[in-house]
Each structure stands twice: as structure tokens, then as C-alpha cells.
């Protein structure tokens, strides 16, 4: 009997065993300490990996198989419970490392605030970067009840850093009046309610540019993603979200990194949300990584 | 340390603290004793209030904020368990009081039978009133296995009272053959399966008239509202229901009262249904109350 | 007090009390031992029956009532736990018996492998038979990790038996690359992602032919059927599936038998999936049995 | 293929097919319309039957097998939703019929109020009857918020009918101060908190007398029966309740009828409560019916 | 119709409407951002209040009724999401206020770290104070993976402040080896596994002293409290915990404040844990407040 | 950034990274295809590992830490779905390998049938071996409805192989009359209902002998382990089961291998059962492995 290496049980299906040889790195950011409503997204990445065994390795949408892309599942980044600032610093430094090694970062949240340090790190490498943001919520607050480090402020921080005109939000159906007004004044793109059609209009404008894509699973209607912190009805279907991922894959933009956040398994006993997230991750790997 | 008044914990977000100054009154009718299948809607109003803290106060659909409408959350009307007749009498007298005080009544069920005493009270004040009814079920029975006071008979009672031609049902996909036939014979409007398109055709005909709107949450597909007594597939999406609420808001009818019924939280561990109901209530407040 | 016969508690609503007089027979095949992901569909048939009491007996889609069709609910076929081969043999012989008696077989799974012995039996009687297959998955494997008797191989077995050109798959969104290629090479029809529109194109080609229809509940999006073994997002709505059933009912094909499989109640605490399945069964009875 | 009689799916394991030959009759009373907290016990009897297939037919406690007792599962008594008085009348007349036919009545609730008509019927036949009552709650109210027909009043009604000194309550840990005082004044037996030890003291005093035993499943600690309307911690274990049933079986009292009430499956996703209830029913059948 | 004050929906049953006149104040501390395993206790206080309507107002254990004690339910203290230090400061200042007003503080968590600022505030007023601690876990860490503000460090902080010899822990069954050793070296009392018997021995030694009692609901076995962050089998029963509360009530110590923490409703669909917590709160009010 | 080896995410807490150096091997046997009631134990091992992060590494019962024992978590043995015979053969050969390498086997089920091939392998090495068996069920059937390979036959097979007098069953509360009789005739030890006290009597008789211990989690009362296939009330507490493990640890028997089976996570939304199982595994590692 031979066990040449430690059992690697809970990895995303078909992840590559070797970091060095991989083009992309999949990692979890198990943080949920600033959420204002229902916590639990810290367990999102582990559950997404666990249910990925129910996936086929082949995408009939893209006609590609997972073994055509070398991605390494690096597990979850250990983050200090209840300390947002230190968590953010750890993530930023982690992404710095990935980018130094030339890897495509593919993150799984965790609350949406985890995208903030990733975007900071990406921006250092890609100063002409744009951000595509799919979400039910604007996330454009300056702070949340006094806390500047909040999941509800992530896109505002990104907009302040890379310029509001470089941020494109889709599917938004919730936010403060002030947030919508701020976006309008700043010339930031917000598509309310819809994703696919406005995205198709925006993509040609971004042709050739490096783009980071951040998807909050709650852009889906709660019917399609009940397992998340803040459900908000009137969202898009998983069919539309898949089509949006494929629209990006078929466009001329250069995806340089991406994440999928806010899967909170405990609110979804059927595990529909984690299963859906795992399929979205597969399509993001197959559709976006090769763009690099 | 100062507590000037008792803690009022579980109220709908942004409800007004003062009854006298309010234009609308939000109240729960926690009754489910005549339901024929799965009980539990008595806990609907409390759960809808509880999750309303996850809502934003601003509607990007209507571009209005909750503080623009003064509504008072009066809590649940205490109803005697297992006594439908007395419950109905209590509700009717409660609504009589609200109308006397010039308030817009906005009720949360509870089973659909609770709409019956409300409609009775409204009709006394608005004898030219019409009823718009969104539901999966006809609710046109004369009785249910011998019981005339049944959630399955509420629309029949309303039709008998205000005249079948003044009742407009939408989204219906379940009922006895006799119920559909009775409606046809009586000239009552029933739109099978769909809501938004037929509603848009009906609204101009009702221009200027006082209308009471009653929404059974099961008009939504179970994917969008699993937490209800009798789920029935093939329903509309929450997007379509939101659009229907907005169509009414943008029409020339005069909404004089409304309710949302049949949210039964125990059948929905993800609380999607209660969250959706709380958003619908927000839109009903923002879109309909000012019509008064 | 008189009890002339044993209490027959959990039967499908309005099932006929007498086998001899019935045109159709409804039976459960409570087998889930070869499933590769989440087991539990053995309890599907019982739960579908149980919630059928929440159904109306009348279909406003087809304008027919259940009492217009005589169907006998024969309960579940007792199957030996963990023995796929013997289970298959028992089912085949059971169906042989039904066909001898001139009955229309209407089966409820259980895992999809249960359709294999039914198709074998049907084919003996209807050698010119075609199969219409609605599913998220191709099910065209030759074996699953070495096991030829697998829920993932059922359509391959059927295709091998009746000829790939006689099998029409709809709604497929998951499978191995090899499976899609095999189908293409063999001239087997696969409609990816969609059901209703391609079905409408296919039906005229099958006019007059005997057709067996097998529906895997996971052809529905997980939003509409979370209670199944392998959920896969991007599926169709229950509205589209109902319309597809009605399209078949309105066509010139001759449905000679059918099944609905893979309802696994434990993954759906709201029981949406079982309720939906019971409505689908009602429409299949009302729409298809009279074709015989 | 032969089906000599209709499929009788959901019956309690090993129930006898023939009413006439049976000594005992098992029946459900699916009523929950007067409950003051969480409804749902109407589905108790069906779920208890369903999970009874997980039971062995042999009791290692009593060294008896179910086939040694002929009991007929008569299904659920159809009761009118939301009408307590009519429901009670129907049950009383049903029990009258059973007693006329010389059957031992074994009822499954439903809310506790269902025991009231049974006790009325029993008392007509056994005027020297005592009642043994195991429950978390006194159930000694005269009315509940004005309603005399309430699950919280059942034991008071029984005590008023057969005399408080003939009622023996065990395991009580919840009630109004007035209820405890009334019991004391009237000389009614109440054992607070405990069941087995005080029961052993009481049983000899009841030797030779006909006794009706009513068990509210909430006498168990919520750890052992989470699936009930009103859980109340500090209760007994299922081991102690089994031992109490066996103590009665081994005593010299003459059990003439019994019930087990308040199983509400929806609050117990693990179905522990229904499984436990089905085992308790088995022991009640094996231990008590032969006393007749 | 008159509504003299705002609807106060979700308050603990029989709470007094007036702060000034009350002897005790019940408040929630909805914080869970430092938990290392499963978050969700922020929703504990609201759910405990909600289910308290299922309680009787009378305790048959203590023969007292809630109206004999004036306690004011002050609702939840608003705490900044994800900021432990600021949360702690807010709580401490809140308790300072209560103590100034001469109130008995009765807190509901939230994670166990919330007890830390309460103890700090209490100690300023009662420098000879002891702490009684019931818990599955030692909570004696200096930090948790580098974070000194952690739910796993609360008792260590308390011991460092008031002296380890003034802290008495009961029911402990989980911790680092170092924690147990530290306690031993410091002369701190730890009763492993058991609560009631060792408590009875300790109470006389504390006679006359002011004591703060902090109960982590996970001192209960998971069978009795599944709805908590870190379940750990081998715990005590709710019967033993009730008896321990009553033992304190009957002793000569002077309880000056108390809390019950770590109820996390989402992990307990049956709501057994919240129901149990609400009964424990009732007994703490009835048994301990009058000691003041 | 350095990743020297693949991420090994879901391993039991503190498992040793190296197979060669380890004394014990922990492995999962994810098979549930012969279960007669509720399937799902295939997911037991993965969930037990996942929740093990909530465990402390130190046992205050045994005063030992996990790092004192080198155990290697080898993951789950891949088993062919629906093929019991092949699954058994694979397991037996796997254990043969472990024993050849001198490892202590510690298995996690899966259904109880998985213990059969382990015992076969162990017996080849330890022909004087005894089996200690803790379970709610006898598991002494010769076959289950004709299937000799059944979870209900595992102990019978073991008894036939090693001799009934070498098998000691504890906690049994369910089985056929014939099973109990067979055990009696054969001189096999069965302690009904209880575990700890009879175990203490048996242990001295087994002093010095190699013993394999197999624990079915359903020996616990459903209150302590709701997440299993066949719950059966009247069982022991987790406290008693822990004490039984410790009694074996403190005895003079030589545990040569062991397993814990039948954890089925889907039936336990609170994950109490998996958490309890992970603690039991920790105690088995700390208490039993060093006996080797």
C-alpha cells in the first residue's frame, strides 16, 4: 500500500496538484465578520469545493474540459476571526504573491469585503484596469454605521481607488438613494435590475483592457441562490448569469482575475446555492482563465 | 441612561412612531385555522417584520424612500385561536376603526380568509369599489367540505358582496372546474396563469375607481415563494410581481387598501419568502399609499 | 360502523379503486442504490402521493378532471436494497404484466436507472417506439466508474436497444464530452439547454408513432426542483415543463407510457419538488393517458 | 398480474387488513385549529404511519410481536378545517361506533383537544373510568383567551366530567398558577416534573379499574421530541416514557383506550419525533391492548 | 381606535413597560464577529424574545409569577458589525449606565465575548465580586490565533481582572491542555463535566458575596441545545441546568447580574434552543433578581 | 509564495501528514447502497472531517493531546456505487494492506455493512480476536428480504466467522425475535438497552485479547444522534458512550482496530451528529490506538 502524498480531500474537482505548473489559483477567503445581516459565508468556499464532485468536468456551453486549464486549489487563506483590517492585509499580501508568480487569481468568498484587498493588489499590477461588478446591491457606502471596513462599502472603495468611471455595475436592485446619486454624479456605470443585455453593450467598450470581475452570488434571484446573507427578490436567473459569464468569455476584454462571493451555505439546506456556485466557478475557469 | 418609552423591537423598518400622524397603518392578521393543507401563516407577519431590517429604505424602482410615507406598524391583531367567526368580526371592527380615522389599511396575513372582513369594511366606505386579486387559486368556493368560512371561499364571498363583475383575478392556475365556470357565467374577470400583461389591459378600465388589492403570495411560483401553505408550480416570478405592483402604482386607479397574505415561514428555512414579502410590502407602501 | 376494505391512506388523489377497470397504472420504483451523488429518491413516490392531496382534481390547462381518467395507484414495487440487477428484473417483469393487461404504465422513480427495465418491456410490445427524454444530464455513459448498471447510463442503454436515432433528448446541460460526441456520431437528437421550442419541432416528425416519455425532474432548474440528487443550475422553469407536457398532449404522437424520476424529498424541506412532481403527474395523466 | 384490492400504502406497520376481526383500531385525528402556538399536528398521524416501516415488529422490552395483536389502521378521521365543535362531535360519534363494535380505541393526534370527545365517549361506556395523563402542561384552563374549546382546556374538561379525583397527571412542568391551585383544591393528582416513579406509586391504587391513558408527546424533553407545538425543556427522556408505558403494561389496571397526541412533523427535520411516536405506539399496542 | 404608544412587538413576555420602575433590565448583545466556528448568535436575543410567547408566566419550580418581578426589556444594544473593540466599549458604557440607575443587568448574547465588558463594569461597582461560569469550554485563552479579543478568551480576561480564585467554572469539557494547567496553577475552580453537584459544594463558600453568573448555552449537551456555535457532546441536560439555576436561587449568594449567551438560532430548525433559553431566562428572572 | 504540496483541505484535525510514520490510519468507507430505510451515510466521513475543526486537540477526559498519536487521514476509499460485493472486496483488500504495513485501522462509515470486510481482514491477522459491538440493532439477520449482503446482517456474518461466543453486543434495543433467540442459543453476548454497566463486567473477561470495536452511532438515543439512517428512541446518552470508550481505554483489552458507522448528515441540519462523531473519533484515537 502506497500513499505518496497526503490525502487532499476537499479540493475543487480536477484542480491541478502542482502550484508551479498552474496558470490559475483558486483560493477561499473565509471571512464574514463585517456582514450587517446574516453571517455564514465563511463556510462558502469549503462547501463549494465539497459539492464540486457533483459536476461534470466538461462544459457543453464552452465545449471545453477542466483538464484543458491548469488551476491549483490552494485552499482557504487563514484569516483572523473578527479582525477586518488584518484580514484585508493578509489577503492583499497573498494576492501580491500570486501576481508575482504570474498566476490568475480566482477567489471565493466570504463576504464581499474580501474583494477589496484583491482589487488593491490587482490595481498595482494593472493600473489601467476596469472592474465589472454583478450584484444585487450597490455596495457604494462610505461606511456602514460608522465602520469604513464593511461589505457594503467594497465597490465605493474600488471606485475611489481606480476611478468611478472604470467600474461597471450590473443587476443592481438595492441601495441607498445617495449611492445611486453618487454613482450618477461620478459617471460610474450602473445597470439596474438587468445584467446580460447591458453587459453586451458595455463589453465592446472595454475591448483589450484588463478587467477584474467580481460576482456577488446575490445578483441571482433568491429562487436561484437562497444561501446568501442578504436575499433580495427580483434578481436574474442562473441561466442569465451563465450567459453573462459566456458573454465575457466571448468578448475581447482581458479578464485578469475574478471572484465569486457571499455563498452562505447554512441558509440553503438543499445546497442549491453551493452547487450553482461550483458550476459558475467551472465556467469562469473554462471561459476566463485562457484569456490571460 | 434614558428609555423614554418601551422598546419597540419587531416593527417594520422605518415605521412611524405615531398613529395619529400616519397616513397608513400596517397590521398583521395571524390567523390560519381554516387552511386545508399546511398551516403556519399565523407567524407570517412577525417574520416579515423581523427580516425587514435586511431591506434598504429606498426603492430604485420607484425612486422613493420609506420616510416619504408615514405608516404606523400597529402589530398583530389578537385573534382567538380556532374561532373563524369571531376572528372575522374582530378584524372587520378593527378596519372600521382604521377607516373612521382616515387611515389606509395595509394588512399582512395569515390565511386568505382574513381579507374577507377587510373587504366587508372597505365596501361600506367605498360602495363603488373593485377588487384586484393576484393568486394561484380561484378561491371561489361556496364552502370547503361544508365550512362556509374557508380560505378557499374568500373571493366568492367578495364577489357575492360587491358583484362578480367588480372582481379581477390574475395569475390563477388552480381551482375546481365549477369555480372557473361560475366566474365565466357571472362575468367575473379571471386571467389564467399570467398577471402583468392582462393587468395592464385591465387597469385603464378601472381608472378613477377605488380599488382594494389582495395578493396571495402563492401567485408566485414556489421557486420564489416556497414558504406558503399550498405551493403550486407554474407561477410568476418575483420580477413580474414587482412589475405588477409598479404597474398599479403608475396607473390611474385609486388604491384604497391592500393586503399580502399566506406567508408561512416554517416551510422556508432560507427565509426567502419572508424577505420577498417584506420587499413587496415596501413597494406597496411606496407605490400605493400616496394614491390616497 | 363499517370498514368494507382496508384503509388505503397514501394513494395519489382520485386514483381509481379497481385495477381491472383502470386504463393506467401508477406505480413507484423506490430504488436509489446506484446514484453517484446524493441518494434519497427511494422516498420520492411516497412523498409525491402524500402531497397530492394539496392538488385540485381539475386542470385549467387541459380543461379536464382526474375523474375522466381511470388510473389505479398500485403503490411501490418492492425492490431489494442494494441489488440493481434484481431490481431491474423485477421492474421489467412487473411492466410485462401491466402491458399484458393492456394498461398504460406511469412510473415514479427512484433513480433514473429504473426507466431502463420499463423501456425494455415497452420495446418488446412497441418495436417501432421512440423515446422522448427530458433531463439535465445526457445519461449516455457506458458505465459509471466500472458499473454498467448506473443511473448515468440509462439513456445509452435505451439508445443501444432501440437505436440512437429513436431517442430524443431535451434540456441537456451536463455530460462528458464523449457523450455529446457519441450522440452526434450516432445521429441521436440532443437539444442542449432548451426543451419547449425544440420539442415543438420534433413532435411533428414523430406523429403517429408510439413514444415513451421519461422525465428526470432535474431538467428543471434547481430553483424549481431543489429536491433531487444532482442539481444543476441553468435549467428550465416549471412553466416551461408544463407547457412541454401540454405540447405533447396536443400533438399527434401516441404516448404509450411514461415516467417521472429522481425526486429526492430530503433535500427540499419546503416540499416544493414533491408538490411540483404531483402536479406534473396530474397533467401527464390528464394529457397523455387518453392518447392510448 | 393480480391486484385484489386497492393499494393500501401508508398504514402502520403490521396493521390487520380486516376491521371486523381486529381487537383494536388505530385512527388519526388530524386537527390542530385551536393550538395557541405552533400548528402542524394535523400531519402527525400520517407521518407516524410513514416512518413505522423503520420499526421492527418485535419488542425486546415486552417480548411480543405485532402479529400477536390484531389492530386495524382505519386511517384519519376526516375533520372540518377550522371548526372545533363539529370536529369534536365527529370524533365522539366515531368513538361511539368503535365502542359499540367492542374495539379498543387507539388514537393519534392532532392537538390535545381531540382527546376530549374520546374521553366523553369512553365515559359513557366506563362510568368508573380514571384518566392517566402524561404531559408537560396542566391543560386545566377553563378557556383560552375566551375560547372554551382549546387544547389548553382538555384535562379540565375531563376532570369536570369524570371528577378531578379520577384524573392523574404526570410530568407536568408548565401551567398557570391558578391551574395548579385548582388541582390541589379539587384533590386531583399532579406529579410535577417526574413520571415513572410517581406512576409506580399510583398504579396499585388504580388496580382493576378501567383507565384511559392520554400522552402528549411534549411530556418528553424537547431533546427527545422537538417536533411538537409547544416545546418545554426539563422533560423526561424517551427511556423513561418507554418504562412508564411498560409499568402500566405490567400493572393491574385495565387500559380501555389511549392516545398519543401533538406530534407536529414540520418542526423536526430529522423526523426523530415521528419515529419515536411510532415506537411508542408499537409498545402501547403490545403492552396495553391485551389488557382488554 | 386608540394607539397610545408605538407597537412594541417583540419583547420578552411580561416585560414591564417602564424603565424607571423596573428592578432589572433585559438587553441583547447581538455580536458574533469573533467566533471561530459557526456564527449566528447575533440573532439569539431576538429569537429568544419571539418564542417567549410560548412560555407560561408562572414557574412551578419556584412558585412565582413574572408579574412579581419588574423587568424592562430594553431591546438589543446596537453594535458595530465587525468591530470587537468598539462593541465592547459600547457594552461597558451601557452597563455603567444601568448600574448607575440601580438596575440588575440581565444580558442575552451574542457570542461569549460580550460578557467581558459587562464583567468589567460590574467589577467597578462590586470589587469583591465572584463569577460563576457554566460552559462546555474553558475560554481561558490569552488570545485566539493572535486575536486577544476572542470569545475563547473571555474567562481568562475575567480571571486576570478579578483574580482567578474568584472565578468558578462548571461543566467544562473542552479546552487546551494549557488552559486547564493555568487554572490549576492559579487556584481557579474548574469542575469538569458536571455542574449541579459541584455547584452545591461551592455555593456555601460564596455565601453573602456578590456574584455575576454567566451561562454559555453550550454547557448543555447538543441534544438539549443544538442551536449554538460550537456543539460539544457529553454535556448536561436542561433538567440539570434548571436545577442549577434553582440551587443558586435557593443559596445565600447575592446574584448581582447575569447573562445567557451563544444561542445561534439558524442551527436549530426546531427552535428548541431558543425556547429553552427563554425558559432559562424566566427562571433567572424569577430566581435571581429578587436576591438584589 | 510557496506551496510545497497540494492543499489538503478536508482532513481530520491534527492528522499526521505522512503515512509511513503513522501508527494509525483513519479512512472513510462512503457506502450506503444496502440500507433499508434512509440512505445518506456515504457523506458521513467527509462531514465528520469537516466539523473536526471545531474540536480541541486535547481530551480533558484522557489528559492526552492528538499530537501524542500519529494517525494518517487517508481520505475515503473509492467504492463503486450500487455494487456491494465489489465494495466489500475493495475494503477487505485495503485493510489487508494497512495490516501488512502494521497500521491500526480506524474506519468511518458509511452503512454498517462496511465493517464486514474489515472484520474479515482483521480475523486473518488476529484469529483469537473478539468483537465489541455497540448498536441499537442486533444486525443478526441472515439476509434482508433475500439479500445476504445487508447492513442488517453484519454482526451475523461476523459471528459466523469468528464464533458467536466471541461477539459482545451492547445497547441493543431493536431486532427480530429470531435474532435474539439465535444469539441466546449460540451463547453470544447481548446486553439489551444498556452499554456502560454490562461493558464493565465484560471487559475483565476479555483482558489481554485482541478486540475489534465497532460502534453504530445509532446506539445513541436519537436526541444525541438524529443524523443516522434508522433512529430508535430509548438509547444511551453521549455521556454514556464517551464513558464506555474510556472504560475500554482503561481496561486490559488490546484494541486492534475499530470503526464508527452510520452517520448520515442530511438528517441533522444542526450537525450535532457529525460533531459528536468527530469527538468520539478523537477519544477513540487518544484512548485506543496506544494500546497497540
Give an account of the 3D structure.
- The structure is a homohexamer of 292-residue chains.
- In chain A, 31% of the residues lie in helices and 18% in strands.
- The first copy, chain A, contains 8 helices and 10 strands.
- In chain A, the strands form 2 sheets. An 8-stranded parallel β-sheet of chain A has the order 4-1-5-10-9-6-7-8, with helices on both faces. In chain A, strands 2-3 form a two-stranded antiparallel sheet.
- The first copy, chain A, has 292 residues and is an alpha/beta fold.
- The radius of gyration of chain A is 18 Å and the shape is globular.
- Chain A has one domain: Ureohydrolase domain (Arginase, Chain A, 3-Layer(aba) Sandwich), CATH 3.40.800.
- Chains A, B, C, D, E, F: Mn(2+) binds at residues 112, 135, 137, 139, 216, 218.
- Chains A, B, C, D, E, F: Its EC number is 3.5.3.11.
- Chains A, B, C, D, E, F: It is an enzyme of class 3 (hydrolase).
- Chains A, B, C, D, E, F: It comes from Peribacillus asahii.
Amino acid at each position: 500500500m502506497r500513499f505518496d502524498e497526503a490525502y487532499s480531500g476537499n479540493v475543487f474537482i480536477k484542480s491541478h496538484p502542482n502550484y508551479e505548473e498552474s496558470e490559475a489559483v483558486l483560493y477561499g477567503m473565509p471571512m464574514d465578520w463585517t456582514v450587517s445581516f446574516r453571517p455564514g459565508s465563511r463556510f462558502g468556499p469549503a462547501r463549494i469545493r465539497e459539492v464540486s464532485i457533483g459536476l461534470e468536468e466538461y462544459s457543453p456551453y464552452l465545449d471545453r474540459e477542466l483538464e484543458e486549464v491548469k488551476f491549483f486549489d490552494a485552499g482557504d487563506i487563514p484569516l483572523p476571526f473578527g479582525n477586518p483590517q488584518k484580514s484585508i492585509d493578509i489577503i492583499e499580501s497573498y494576492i501580491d504573491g500570486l501576481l508575482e508568480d504570474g498566476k490568475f487569481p480566482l477567489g471565493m468568498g466570504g463576504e464581499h469585503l474580501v474583494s477589496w484587498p484583491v482589487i488593491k493588489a490587482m490595481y498595482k499590477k494593472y493600473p489601467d484596469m476596469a472592474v465589472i461588478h454583478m450584484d444585487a446591491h450597490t455596495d457604494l457606502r462610505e461606511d456602514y454605521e460608522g465602520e469604513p471596513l464593511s461589505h457594503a462599502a467594497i465597490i465605493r472603495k474600488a471606485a475611489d481607488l481606480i476611478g468611478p468611471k472604470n467600474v461597471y455595475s450590473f443587476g443592481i436592485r438595492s441601495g441607498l438613494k445617495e449611492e445611486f446619486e453618487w454613482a450618477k454624479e461620478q459617471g460610474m456605470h450602473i445597470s439596474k435590475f438587468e445584467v446580460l443585455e447591458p453587459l453586451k453593450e458595455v463589453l465592446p467598450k472595454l475591448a483589450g483592457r484588463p478587467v477584474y470581475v467580481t460576482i456577488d452570488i446575490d445578483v441571482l434571484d433568491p429562487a436561484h441562490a437562497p444561501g446568501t446573507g442578504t436575499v433580495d427578490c427580483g434578481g436574474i436567473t442562473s441561466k442569465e448569469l451563465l450567459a453573462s459569464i459566456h458573454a465575457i468569455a466571448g468578448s475581447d476584454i482581458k479578464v485578469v482575475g475574478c471572484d465569486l462571493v457571499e455563498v452562505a451555505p447554512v441558509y440553503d439546506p438543499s445546497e442549491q446555492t453551493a452547487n450553482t456556485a461550483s458550476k459558475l466557478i467551472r465556467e469562469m475557469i473554462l471561459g476566463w482563465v485562457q484569456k490571460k
